[in-house]
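To illustrate the input format used throughout this study, we show a single complete record. The first block contains the structure-token representation of the backbone; no residue identities are included at this stage. The design step must infer an amino acid for every position from geometry alone.
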């Protein structure tokens, strides 16, 4: 016969299991999505590489991109900047960033990328699976960005997906992070037109907001939008780009603690780029 105390303990465990957020689903995989590898590096990039389709991003049509080791794609050249900045800053390149931070793959899995077919649509993926953080700390993140051709709607239309399955660190040691990759100037996720239009996921530049240890705002526990071929799921953030604009139009509303960082970090990001590279070399 089960004692009353055991029954109570079992009830507590069941309640805890029900109340915990669901974990994220796996990354997208399709033929060609991991066909290419960016050799192990810190702050490197590769490009231009073919998307396999035309993408109209804020009035500019691109069929190529640069895959940057530090968690983002750009369309006007490679970017090696490793300390993230607010995407509202002037003079930035057009960028799509699932996790802009100081990725260091010299002692982790490398970044992979490639074009192929996803559920009948041309698609391009950049995969940051089990990637480390500067300076080769033993902590790893897994995330991905996928661009999906939606030209069946209109020429140049596409979807952006950010997919997350594991986020254990947020900043490298040259971005103020500690020896566990925590604190400092933490990661930014979002996009910018390279002009006045931009969006950042809530929690960008906020210490601890994106991490798996944060059961409320951790990116693996939440989602945005609806994927074109399946139901929404935790860890997947979908943005529809139609006629060059992200739909629905999103007005960025940064969390209060990010206001100062977005201005100061964004404006200073490029000014200190050369000095920071020298220090990391």
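Output of the design step:
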């Amino acid at each position: 016969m089960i004692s009353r105390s055991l029954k109570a303990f079992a009830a507590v465990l069941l309640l805890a299991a029900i109340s915990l957020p669901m974990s994220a689903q796996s990354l997208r995989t399709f033929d060609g999505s991991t066909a290419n590898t960016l050799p192990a590096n810190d702050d490197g990039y590769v490009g231009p590489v073919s998307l396999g389709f035309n993408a109209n991003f804020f009035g500019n049509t691109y069929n190529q991109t640069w895959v940057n080791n530090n968690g983002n794609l750009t369309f006007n050249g490679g970017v090696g900047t490793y300390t993230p900045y607010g995407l509202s800053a002037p003079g930035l390149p057009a960028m799509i960033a699932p996790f802009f931070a100081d990725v260091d793959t010299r002692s982790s899995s490398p970044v992979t990328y490639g074009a192929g077919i996803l559920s009948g649509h041309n698609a391009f993926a950049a995969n940051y699976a089990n990637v480390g953080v500067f300076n080769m700390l033993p902590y790893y993140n897994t995330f991905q960005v996928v661009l999906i051709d939606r030209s069946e709607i209109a020429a140049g239309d596409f979807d952006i997906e950010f997919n997350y399955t594991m986020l254990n660190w947020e900043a490298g040691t040259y971005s103020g992070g500690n020896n566990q990759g925590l604190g400092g100037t933490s990661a930014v996720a979002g996009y910018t037109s390279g002009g006045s239009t931009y969006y950042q996921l809530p929690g960008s530049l906020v210490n601890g907001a994106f991490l798996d240890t944060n059961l409320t705002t951790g990116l693996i526990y939440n989602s945005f939008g609806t994927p074109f071929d399946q139901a929404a799921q935790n860890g997947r953030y979908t943005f529809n780009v139609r006629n060059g604009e992200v739909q629905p139009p999103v007005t960025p509303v940064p969390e209060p603690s990010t206001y100062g960082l977005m201005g100061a970090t964004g404006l200073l990001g490029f000014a200190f780029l050369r000095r920071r590279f020298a220090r990391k070399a």
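Structural context for interpreting the output: Residues 22-280 form one domain. The longest helix spans residues 4-19.
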